[in-house]
Amino acid sequence: MKLMVVIPCYNEEQVLPETAKRLQAKMEQLIGGGLCGKDSRVLLVDDGSKDKTWELIAALHEENPLFEGLKLSRNRGHQNALLAGLMTARRHCDVSISMDADLQDDIDAVDRFLEEYEKGCDVVYGVRNKRKSDTFFKRRTALLFYKLMKGLGVDITYNHADYRLMSLRALDALGEFREVNLFLRGLAPLVGFQTGVVYYDRSERFAGESKYPFKKMLAFAVDGVTSFSVKPLRLITALGIIIFVISLLMLIYTLVSWIVGRAVSGWASTLASIWMIGGIQLLCLGVIGEYIGKIYSETKRRPRFIVERYLNEEKADPIVDE
Ligand code: UDP
Ligand code: MG
Predict the structure, then answer these.
(1) Cβ neighbours, 10 Å, residue 40
(2) I need a labelling partner for 71 at 20 to 30 A (CA). Which of 20, 127, 234, 285 fits?
């Protein structure tokens, strides 16, 4: 069984040497123990880094064929880089495991991923036990995000990021999903098949800094919600109905006041309602606009990634997003 470990890397020159060292040791141990085939590989995907990441990857490949390199033509973001790696893996292996370059996810859990695979699972989710190492803020916002997704009826695994095993058939199924707005951890459950879960402890990034500042995190969360749920649109409808009912009551109230002869007072209430309604309308337009934006980018069907080079032993051609 040929395993391919897929790792998206963006400006990771600080962590890459250490990551490569640890991965090499791990892979040698796995291969030695017969858990995966001798031809197993580590695929490092350079997501258009601006530092020496690609040079490092090329040097690693030169030194040891265990490491393969995939260079994207420019920075496309974590999810797209990961997809590019997975779609390459689909052509060259039997099973893939995706993880981050900073090895925050415990690589010793890989053994258990492979055990689950041997038991017949096509998709295995890595789930964090606790988030001790994350900041209080990240923990809170993450929890809020999972709660929101659940509330909106989206099927995602709590505390599962992108540390995941996918078999060849799961990868093929994933390839059938053509969406441009990628949220892989939401797509994996839609792929189906038998799934398993592996628990592990998440540690700290050992060098460099997070490539997910708050702005990116927020955009990612909005993408996650709007790509998988139309509930926000329904909420707007509900809100509209409520406001309509209130306005009917208000109409009755105004008419009665007029008839009774209690006229021009209520400057404050008029002003307040104008601002309120205006605000709610803008908010609703924004939500609808978000979905229209999604439709717009989906209909253009732009490629989700463009590969510039693929460094591998077989001299296989780079894969395209067809
Ligand atoms: N990453 C990427 N492209 C980007 C941003 C991040 O390929 O535009 C990679 C990054 O190199 C890392 C993974 O995505 O391997 C997760 O990023 P990071 O560890 O910074 O996120 P965090 O763990 O803080 O959520
Ligand atoms: Mg990280």
Answers:
(1) 19
(2) 127
Pocket of ligand 1 (CB under 6 A): 8-10, 12, 47, 75, 77-78, 81, 100-102, 104, 205, 210-212
Dihedral sign (CA 172, 176, 181, 185): negative
User: In CATH, what class is 3-209+304-311?
Assistant: alpha beta
Our mutation pick for probing the ligand 1 site, out of 5, 6, 9, 10, counting the most ligand atoms within 8 A of Cβ, is: 10
| pLDDT for the residue numbered 135 | 75
What is the token pair recorded at 124? 């295995």
Model confidence at 134: pLDDT above 80: no
Angle between helices 16-32 and 110-118 (to 10 degrees): 40
Pocket test for ligand 1, best of 45, 211, 217, 304 (most atoms within 8 A of CB): 211
pLDDT-based confidence at 133, cuts 50/70/90?
A: low
The whole-model pTM stands at 0.80
CA of residue 79 to ligand 2 center, whole Å: 13
Quick one: pLDDT at residue 87?
A: 94
Residue 244 Cα, ligand 2 centroid: separation in angstroms?
47
Q: Which atom of ligand 1 is nearest to the CA of 75?
A: 8
Residue 98 pLDDT: 95
